[in-house]
Amino acid sequence: MEMRLHSKKRKPALWTVMAMMIAQLIFHPRMCTGGALRPGYYAQTCPNAENIIRAAMEWGMQQDSGTAPGVLRLHFHDCFVDGCDGSVLLEGPTSEKTAPPNSSLRGFEVIDAAKAELEATCPGVVSCADILAYCARDAVIMTGGLGWPVEAGRLDGRSSDASRANAEIPDPSFNVAQLIDSFARKGLTRSDMIVLSGAHTIGRANCKSVATRLYPVQDPRLSEPLAAELKSGCPQQGGSATFNLDSTPDRFDNNYYANVVNGRGIMNSDQVLFDDPSTRPETTFNAVGSAPWAFRFSQIMLKMGTIDVKTGPQGEIRRNCRSVN
Ligand code: HEM
Description:
Blueprint: H1 11-26, H2 29-33, E1 38-39, H3 49-63, H4 67-79, H5 108-121, H6 128-142, E2 151-152, H7 162-168, H8 176-184, H9 190-197, E3 204-206, H10 211-214, H11 224-233, E4 242-244, H12 255-261, H13 268-275, H14 280-288, H15 290-304
Antiparallel strand pairs: 1-2, 3-4
């Protein structure tokens, strides 16, 4: 890996990043976000809930290893639009699912399977929004990452609107300033954005997510070998090829950052994390230190899971995750 970490120029930036990380370890995200949620939320009301959800995930992974990246992304797209309220799961002619940024979401059948079993075991107790949060955690563990004690107690929302998904989901063509702004609107910092982008250590992208790097003008920062690879699967008229987001797409490791450092970020929004001087030091740091990044990833997933959580009359426990009661 050519990262020249020992050059004098890099050292101060890395120390700054380390200091930031230590500060973040001390100030746990929940101290900043209030904390209506808690671990073990279903211990009395549905003690087997987490086992049921894990079994559904295991079943899903047996059908398709894309289940893990699929549900991790589902939780992110849920939380960024109207908060973590399961609104991404609702069906309807103008629901979030119909929005272009959500066109390739996958893993819905695992949520349905978990919900069906939970309704049979403890009806009306476990929300779809919480199922998503547990599945995202299990997805990380099942691909070799570090888990976290999921905080639960979210209610499900009653509305879902494609226009809000279009407005809130960050686009892969975004530059760093736009990415930071998109995350800031959800109470997440630049550092949180860099850490969560590491989710692209698993899964894939479709042609539409890389096309703007190729046509009409090729991104000058795209290396020729990578450009040729992307173009071969994605001709200008469009194609159905998919590209692994990372060189180890089934392993939850920090190779994503190493790839980005080496100019192998698949989407523009990945590569800019190294290309932009404001995010380069932390991206480089994550490429080197797997354990600190993995730990922070679990912390920031907890923080993301608290975005605009619904309580009381704002929500319900859906009987079917695809429709309101
Ligand atoms: C930083 C801003 C982000 C942007 C611009 C972005 C954009 C995208 C895009 C365009 C894809 C490929 C979709 C396709 O072509 O089918 C993708 C895939 C994915 N994203 Fe992100 N994403 C971001 C952050 C996140 C976060 C925060 C998470 C989770 C915590 C996440 C998890 C994933 C996963 C796991 C995949 C692979 C999905 C699959 O294989 O089905 N992303 N993302």
